[in-house]
Amino acid sequence: MERQEIAVNELLVNPFELWSTNWALLTSGDFASRHFNSMTVAWGSLGIMWNKPFAMVVVRPQRYTRQFIDESDSFTLSVFPEAYRQILETLGTKSGREMDKINASGLTPTASTKVASPSFLEAELLVECRKMYFADFEPKHFLSDFIKDLYKNDYHRMYFGEVLAIAGTARYKLAP
Ligand SMILES: Cc1cc2nc3c(=O)[nH]c(=O)nc-3n(C[C@H](O)[C@H](O)[C@H](O)COP(=O)(O)O)c2cc1C
Asked: What is the pTM of this model?
């Protein structure tokens, strides 16, 4: 995939489409020692916090990826072309605890530019993040009734990562 560096103020993306339609592959761990895991995510955000550009992801306690992201100081988000949807479905239903799902997916993990967590060669958009903050959702603070129906006591932990690098295909870059 032919990607170029994209500065945060040049990034062209509809965040609602990105999360709920495209999805992303969240990866955390260490590429050099091949100790990492990935899972599909569809909930999250991109924005500014503490004057830094951030990506925020939410991970339930039972995900295998959770132990990697808790141990690591970084994570990446990889967004793929539509043709990879089936692969993202599989990476979002199978657990790395039970099988080498990344190897089975045929995707190619590759070193990131700024963080230890790997990216994927086939991605059309890559976001590299350094963890800045985490917090667990507090069920007493859910103000809409529908939210509690989404949980069985497995409240997500949210992670805010400072965006250190973005690379993407031309469609993700604002024309000068
Ligand atoms: C489209 C889609 C979106 C998902 N989004 C999330 C999410 O935002 N947070 C989460 O904890 N799990 C999410 N999941 C579930 C995980 O991807 C799934 O449980 C995965 O198998 C976990 O893999 P792991 O055990 O190897 O970490 C999603 C699954 C799919 C298919």
From this structure: 0.98
